[in-house]
Amino acid sequence: MNIKQLKYFYEIAKEGQITRAAKKLHIAQPPLSQSLKALETRLGVILFERNGREMVLTDAGEVLYRRVEIIFNNLDETYKEVQETGQGIRGTLSIGCNKSCFSHIPNKINIYQEMYPDVNFKLIEGDSYFLTKQLKERELEIAIIRLPIDMSDLEYYELPKEEYVAVVPNNLITVKRESISLQELADIPLFLLHRMKGRGQFEIIMERFEQEGLNVQVKCESPNVDMLLGLVNEGLGATIVPQSTLLKYNTNHVSILKLSNQKIISESAIVWAKDRYLSKSAKRFIELFTNKPVATIK
């Protein structure tokens, strides 16, 4: 059993097909099939069940896949660490961000580019559940997300807290005002942020209405704040969002109102995977938020 055999096995498992794996590896199918057969003979087990052209991992194959995935992730990180030892900060930094947190990003990237012009960025948008999943799968190095989220496998630095505000179409407001109560919002169709999975802003806001004994008209739920604000802008209803969400939003047709007799706080954080090599480029980006070395963050 050698690294090449394990690499071939790993790609077959990821692609689920000999043809696709061969194409990705830029080799012909026969040597790939021969390598797999030799590996199965060496181990004395069947690693895949053949279902036509599709390859499905057996129980033994699943065990080997999990082990091999760790090996190759460690190799990739070792390769990156060795390279960075003798080179300056360069390459591509993958960052995830909730759309409602994007206001934290542009200024920091502007500063970062002046400091490290050889670094490029890959920005991925999604809700907190999706982005933390991407971190754990090593598709991202860091992410800026709304809390709460399961932090058991993550390191993090909390960003400044902010208040939720109501965004209400002007056609639904009879007099100029600065605030609105939950009782009044309960009579207006609502469009609320709701992440794909897990507890988030939606549950926090709904609990406040329930505590007041109010039934609300939730007409739309979405993890995409732009969609919700677009519906509000058309005069269809109201939303409740973190205040920074509105920094670059056209508010000509809506009113931004504080919640009267209520203070709903939004918490966010910059997060990264625990017990994983973090590139120099990622550390320096995090330090733009923390103003201290990553190693000292508690």
Q: Outline, from the CA principal axes?
A: elongated
Poorly predicted segments:
none
Summarize the amount of helix as a percent range: 25-40%
Number of helices: 10
Please provide a written account of the structure.
This protein has three domains: 82 residues, Orthogonal Bundle (Arc Repressor Mutant, subunit A); 101 residues, Periplasmic binding protein-like II (D-Maltodextrin-Binding Protein, domain 2); 100 residues, D-Maltodextrin-Binding Protein, domain 2 (3-Layer(aba) Sandwich), CATH 3.40.190.290. Helix content is 40%, strand content 23%. The protein has ten helices and 14 strands. The protein has a five-stranded mixed β-sheet, with helices on both faces. Strand 9, helix 8 and strand 10 form a beta-alpha-beta unit. The radius of gyration is 25 Å and the shape is elongated. The model has no long low-confidence stretch (mean pLDDT 89).
